[in-house]
Amino acid sequence: MTETSPTTLADLAHEIRSKNAGPFWVTMELFMRDADGYRIAADESFLDERTVARLYDVDESGIQIFRIPSLNVVKISFPRPVSQASLFDRDIHSGQHHVPLAVLPVPAPE
């Protein structure tokens, strides 16, 4: 029996990226390939503030999620754990923050 890898958000997306949104915020954008992928990414029972807080070890109350169905886009913003370019900043441009979100397994179809 061959075991397959679970489908991830990256598999359903045209692009997932992260970037700094000023010295105190990180923004991630999920550009989904189609409406079906968008429905999964925008589903609050799958991707919500609690999930993002767990993935990024940030306070759930500071997370903002914007769902834009006309563009098949989900945008997530949260305060940076440390300010940009401070002594403990490991990713000044926040260019690698998208990875945990990209590899998040999506629920199997019922």
Describe this structure as you would to a colleague.
There is one protein chain. This protein has 110 residues and is of the alpha+beta class. Helix content is 22%, strand content 25%. The protein contains 4 helices and 4 strands. It has a 4-stranded antiparallel β-sheet.
Pick out its properties.
110 residues, alpha+beta, 4 helices, 4 strands, 22% helix
Order of strands across the main sheet: 1-2-4-3
- Class from secondary-structure proportions: alpha+beta
Poorly predicted residue ranges: none
Helix content: 10-25%
* Beta-strand residue fraction: 25-35%
Biggest sheet features: 4 strands, antiparallel
The number of E-state strands comes to 4
The gist of it:
With 110 residues, the chain is an alpha+beta fold. Helices cover 22% and strands 25% of the residues.
Write the layout of secondary structure elements.
Elements lengths: L8 H4 E8 L4 E8 L2 H8 L6 H8 L7 E5 L4 E7 L19 H4 L8
Antiparallel strand pairs: 1-2, 2-4, 3-4
